[in-house]
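Q: Predict the assembly, please.
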Amino acid sequence: MMAEDYGNMMCGIEIHQQLDTHKLFCNCRSCLSEEGHGGIYRRLRPTTSEMGEVDRAALAQFKRGYGYCYESCPGTTCLVELDEEPPHEVNAEAMETALIFSEMLGASIIDEVEFMRKIVVDGSNTSGFQRTSLIAVDGSVAAVGRRIGILSVCLEEDACRKIDTKDGVVTWRTDRLGIPLIEVATAPDMKTPQEVMEVAQRIGTLLRATKRVKRGIGTIREDLNISIPEGARIEIKGVQELRMLPDFVGNEVKRQQGLVRVKKILAERGTRVVTDTAIDVTDLFKDCGSKIIQGALRDKGVVLAVKLSGFAGVMNGDNKTLRLGAEMAQYARTVGVKGIFHSDELPNYGIDQSYVDALRRRLGMTEQFDAFVICAAREKKARDALVLAVRRANMGLDGVPEETRDPLPDGTTRYSRPLPGAARMYPETDVPPTVITPQRLDRIKVHLPEFPEQIEARLVKQYGINAQQAAQIVRQSRDDVFCKIADEFGLASVAATTFQGTFAEMEHEGLDTDLLTYDDLYQVFAGVRGGKFAKEAIPAVLREMIGGSTLAAAVKKLGLSAVSDDDAAAAIAAIVRERSGFVRSKGLGAVGPLMGPVMGALRGKVDGKKASDLLQQEIKKFLAH
Amino acid sequence: MSYAQFLSSKLAAAGAVEGCMLTVATGGRTYRGVLMPHHEFSGHDIVILKVKSGYNIGIRVAADAEIKVESQPVEHHRPSEEGTVKPGLKNLVLIGTGGTIASYVDYRTGAVHPALSTADMINAVPEIRDVANLKAQVLFSIFSENMTVPHWQKLAQAVADELNAGADAVIIPHGTDTMSYTAAALSFMLGDVPKPVVLVGSQRSSDRPSSDASSNLMAAARFCVNGNRAGVFVVMHDTSGDDSFAVHCGTRVRKMHTSRRDAFHSINVPPVAHLDRDGKIEFSGPGRATSAAKAVATTGMNQHVVLLQFYPGMDPELFRDVILKSKGVVIAGSGLGHVNENMVPLIREADSRGTVVVITSQCLNGRTNLNVYNTGRDMLAAGAVTVQDMLPETAYVKLMWALANTNSPEAAKEVMRTPLAGEMGDRRLV
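A: Predicted assembly structure:
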């Protein structure tokens, strides 16, 4: 897609970054646990609103008995997570980090920070609310060649992790609950998918420059707010992989463009709101070969159908760029059906033309743009699903509905729920306010961490590595360990190559390099320095360690245990002998071509320089005979 | 901390009241938002505004700041209707006393207020109307640490009046800190009360979706409607989850945790009953069925009673005045009920002057027994009264009642030794 295809799209990002401190309101460690224990059953009751009334729909749902089950984890949860003890005072280090980061964005910091309770009744917070505070407003970040506005920086607590949903009970693990998060929201200043990624990357690098943030999958999550002219504001919640951001933005713009076209087409046709209700057409499909339909009928299901006048061709048409049908199916699936079939995609899926024709006759479809949608499931479910599918089809008349969407692994999104209204917030009276004195801010300003570009310049100057390498090291926030390796082992160049080339390759292979800790990397380079294995073995060792091996296990598995010079020389001599003709004809010119087989045979047990020296020596010996 | 003088003058001059929309121009910036109440721990030069995003922010106001009121607060009228009476359902009366369970939050300001109207209380749990007809009255609006003996007396009389006026049961939302004292007081004052009288509290305020207030109230209502048990009880969470509730005998229950939902435990006896989340009741033993008898409140209390906890090194000189000036003393002794040997002469002197000294144990669990060791035998010889496995707090309440409703220390001692409301027992199960 060309750049101008994004027209006047607007995109803002909200980044949620976990901090590497203890939890925000208790002294539990901020890390996840492999196992959850126990299962405390709780319900969250819709509370009376500001007007003293209870939301009837929410109350009806409560009365139906939806409950939550909370697992605890020794070491990472205590009574505070279980909502059995009031919050302690806010974690000082987390607050300090939020202030430092706000200063780095040049934002105006609030004089006295007040924590709020933001009502959330999906069970993800045991209390039924998330504790959150506004720390700063009106900052900016330099990226994509201009200044991108920062609307707000908040300090808040992370929510529980969803483990399972069974029989109306959602199981949540409380280990993640209470981990401090910095939430930073940009203005809708990004104009292309690429800009979105670059801005997110820049903010991520600034966050890591505080040296107090967590790393690894799931420790930073992005929400995207995207709209195009004539489209609507769409929120994509919880993207975990930065490199996927352009895909989500690009696909969302295309989706909205398609829906805007659908709206225009329907308007031109004069299509009206569908008011038809579903009719039972089970008899028509008794002998149909579709597996889905047969499965539904065996499960005491029915086949229901609704006529959609004026919707032909927009549910799946124009080379799959008009996809109202996909939206309808996503709505329908929220009631638990496997899916729907609509006339734009049939005949297919084991439903052949004769069934389509029979259904068209039954529904009285005579006009050019008449269409239909069917659903096979138990009657109540099928009826509910079709009500939603028809509702979503009708929404197509108005273009793009505002909604919250979930990111999918392929870079597309799925309808999740309508855009929430203004958040209901009220003061968290259990947590005293934090006064931010001018003296404290002065102290923070004086001790601001180095900005990424300052670190890069320092690395280039001090260690003689190139700018791209320095940028990569800083982006990965590996500058501390890099300096240590360079200073202590004199391996600046090797380390720079590793952090640039090797890390990029591993990430490309889908490996999570964030799993490598400071200590892991320090030990690997200590091994190289100490002659335990050659620098050429570093990539293989790191891959093993990402897979969960210790350094010692990786060295053992790769057969890297040290080789004496004599053994190495003997192995090289054998290679020279095997290629005697070639060596005789090339003389010392054979060193270059033979380095490959030699390094292969030595498998990283000997440093390249030493191998080259030994090879020259063996060739000379051989030629001398 | 209150506002600084200059700031309260500025706010007053601008005509600013909580809930109004303000603009504050200070330090080169202008803020707009709704004025919130000043937090006790806020800086004295800080005003708190709720800004458009819903967040509250504290703004340091300079002496030359400009404050302007943009609009006055919007008044929300809280609904005051009461439900219709459904024939066939039992009639429950809620008597509000205050505490977390009967508080509501003004979401606009975040301030916690005691429920002032009957509708406030019933509206907190509208589904309770599905199991019973409800009438409510607010007797007090106080936190339970501020309860006094006259409050207990007034409450007992109100309960008796409601029962005699036709209520099938009385539910008393109550602060949890001293709920067990009130339960004990009502147990003795109401004696053989013919209907269930249930105190119920909550450990999480009802503004929170996770509050235990509504489920505890609902469990209390179901116990009243379906339990067919007369007496004074406390109903609270039995576990940390919202799926299990315990009914405790009013004289045997104690708050054993500062914050957990399942803070209330029956001591030395199993709970009277358990309820599951669907309201199914399982009793642990037989009890008194409800009847059509009249309720009588015997509310006399002698307030010259103290509750002391023995500790190593307790100095009789320090407590001499306190003990001799009292008509009754309850001591939570160590172990089987002991005090140190220096305290024994003081007990003897108190007894000889007509002060009743009752011994309980700070172990809470288990029965006192002063026959086992020398000190104990000396205490008995000095006139100390033991009351088996009665809780210290229950003994304190009972002693006030016993002294007021008998005419001699000896008679009061006899009342203390006699079980009246399930408060003591001679058998503790393994």
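The domain at 5-71 of chain B is CATH 2.30.30.520 (SH3 type barrels.). The longest helix of chain B spans residues 149-164.
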